[in-house]
Write a structure and sequence with these properties.
This protein has 333 residues and is of the alpha+beta class. It is built from nine helices and 15 strands. The structure holds 2,5-anhydro-1,6-di-O-phosphono-D-glucitol (AHG) and manganese (II) ion (2 copies).
Length: 333
């Protein structure tokens, strides 16, 4: 059985100029994940469910576990001294790490510390999403927003942790997607799925159909297409929606499907945040042979202008995303 720690070191040796800093960073995320996992498992027993009473910059009420997960990951990342700063769903602005070592950190991390937090109180799977870039400002100088506002294709690594029926850490450094299942009895993530690929064809579509009337015509038509009978393309597809991007994506990755959060009347640019939700998931999707789009263009090519920028999101099996894009394009003609 190979552990995540062993796997990271093994991969590091494949890069002759590797300094071990990225390995240290991934190991900090691993530690943060274990702590968050421990506390999520106790939800219901101790006073960590429910809202914190404070809203984040996006006007969304923070849950106690949102705040806890953010603080945990922030502390774990700062302690290693390889990260110069972070941006997070739960932080208004970027956070520059203050210690001397961090000024020389070559990486910045963007994260959604707890994804799907409305599911915490009802014992449904939640996740953590992370995205890693090399800074563009010279090492030793204070980092700036430009270090974070890089297009997704510049990501050095990305991944997520899913706190589900088992806890898994899934990540990519650009050489495929690898998944590790946590064994709580020994406190170790063990390699369980090496080089994960989307199935060639999928038959699951995941979208919050409650907002159907508020969707663009292209999305409405694609949903109808998913529901039509056609033996050749294995339709009708089945509908599955958890309401936690990590969990919905994870299922669709393993079983074959598409996840869509389009622009709606309430969210004209979609709901999901480009930098710490769409980009890291898009990076994993492409690494797994899938595709990620905003309905018209590749997610990883979008040049961001704001930390908390939103984007419509279509991600999953390449063929399914292509089909949905065709409906979007027809609609805009
Ligand atoms: P978060 O908990 O980090 O704010 O993210 C929630 C996101 C995403 O995970 C999920 O897919 C989507 O919001 C669900 O939104 P709806 O409730 O509008 O379907
Ligand atoms: Mn989220
Ligand atoms: Mn979140």
């Amino acid at each position: 059985m190979k552990t995540l720690g062993e796997f990271i070191i093994e991969k590091q040796h494949e890069f002759p100029h590797a300094t071990g800093e990225l390995s240290a960073l991934l190991s900090a995320i691993k530690l943060g994940a274990k702590i968050i996992n421990r506390d999520i498992n106790k939800a219901g027993l101790v006073d960590i469910t429910g809202t914190s009473g404070i809203s984040n910059i996006q006007g969304e009420m923070q849950m106690k576990l949102d705040v806890f997960a953010n603080e945990t990951l922030k502390a774990a990342l700062e302690a290693r001294g390889v990260v110069a700063g972070i941006a997070s769903e739960e932080e208004d602005k970027l956070v520059i790490f203050d210690n001397q070592k961090s000024h020389h950190g070559k990486y910045v991390v963007l994260m959604d510390p707890l994804d799907g937090s409305s599911n915490i109180d009802v014992n449904v799977s939640v996740g953590t999403i992370f995205s890693i870039y090399q800074r563009v400002t010279p090492v030793g100088q204070p980092i700036q927003e430009s270090d974070f506002l890089q297009p997704g294709h510049k990501q050095v690594a990305a991944g997520y942790i899913i706190y589900g029926s088992s806890t898994m850490l899934v990540y990519s450094t650009g050489c495929g997607v690898h998944a590790f299942t946590y064994d709580p009895s020994i406190g170790v993530f063990c390699l369980s799925h090496e080089s994960v690929k989307f199935p060639e064809k999928g038959n699951i579509y995941s979208i919050n159909e409650g907002f159907y009337s508020k969707f663009p015509v292209g999305v409405k038509q694609y949903i109808k297409y998913c529901q039509q009978e056609d033996q050749k393309t294995n339709r009708p597809y089945t509908s599955r929606y958890i309401g936690s991007l990590v969990s919905d994506f994870h299922r669709n990755l393993l079983k074959g499907g598409i996840y869509i959060y389009p622009q709606t009347a309430q969210y004209p640019n979609g709901k999901l945040r480009l930098l710490y939700e769409c980009n890291p998931i898009a990076f994993l999707a492409e690494q797994a042979g899938g595709k990620a789009s905003d309905g018209y263009q590749r997610i990883l090519d979008i040049l961001p202008s704001e930390l908390h920028q939103r984007s419509p999101f279509f991600v999953g099996v390449t063929q399914m995303v292509n089909d949905s894009e065709q409906f979007m394009q027809k609609d805009s003609q």
